[in-house]
Specification:
Helix 3 links the parallel strand 3 and strand 4. By secondary structure, the protein is α/β, with parallel strands linked by helices. It starts with 7 loop residues before the first strand and ends with a helix. Helix 5 runs antiparallel to helix 7. Strands 2-1-3-4-5 form a five-stranded parallel sheet, sandwiched between helices. The protein has seven helices and five strands. It has two domains: 122 residues, Response regulator (Rossmann fold, 3-Layer(aba) Sandwich); 66 residues. It comes from Haloferax profundi. One of its GO terms (cellular component) is protein-DNA complex. One of its GO terms (molecular function) is transcription cis-regulatory region binding. InterPro entries: CheY-like_superfamily, HalX_domain, Sig_transdc_resp-reg_receiver, WalR-like.
């Protein structure tokens, strides 16, 4: 996507009324494509340059989880927002999404979340990874009991990955700041 072209957002849900609603809510944010099943979603992702995906987890046929895995297997690195009625559990740790919203969702929440993931596309890969892991951690901590999290190997692995990603993101930030100061010194020195 060029910087002046509007982003393309793919909204996938087996309820056509929801995809129509997402399209209405996001039409001023970019071009919105809609699909009501996983197969159509994958075809649209192949045919179009998709900048962000809103994806329901519970769909007949191909689930949102399967669509997400297939998108990643095909090399699509665009941000994915899971928008679903499925309450998250530690099973989300291994899922390569960027944000997780539990239905029902409102207009402002959807718009803010899409704006956020679209803006993150410009971030360093380490910073994007940190935000994705931070979101998973926050979702789990707000929906699971402390006992469930303490007993979960997946959650423990997530916290280890989160700490490592935070270090990589901090290093990337420091490198950018250092490069920026060196560039300023070269031009003003």
């Amino acid at each position: 996507m060029s910087s002046d072209a509007p982003p393309t957002i793919l909204a996938v849900d087996d309820e056509p009324s929801l995809t129509a609603l997402y399209e209405a809510w996001l039409s001023d944010r970019g071009d919105v494509l809609t699909a009501t099943d996983g197969t159509d979603a994958l075809e649209l992702a192949e045919d179009e340059s998709v900048d962000a995906v809103m994806l329901d987890r519970h769909m007949p046929g191909m689930t949102g989880d399967e669509v997400l895995d297939e998108l990643r297997d095909r090399g699509h690195e665009c941000p994915v927002v899971m928008v679903t009625g499925v309450d998250p559990d530690v099973d989300i740790v291994a899922m390569p999404f960027d944000e997780y919203l539990v239905k029902p969702v409102g207009r402002d929440e959807v718009r803010t979340t899409v704006d956020t993931v679209l803006s993150r596309r410009t971030y360093d890969e380490h910073v994007r990874e940190f935000f994705a892991l931070a979101r998973k951690k926050a979702v789990l901590e707000s929906t699971c009991t402390d006992g469930t999290l303490t007993a979960s190997d997946e959650y423990h692995e997530l916290t280890v990955e989160f700490d490592a990603a935070r270090e990589r993101a901090n290093t990337a930030r420091d490198d950018v700041l250092e490069d920026g100061f060196e560039e300023l010194a070269l031009h003003h020195g």
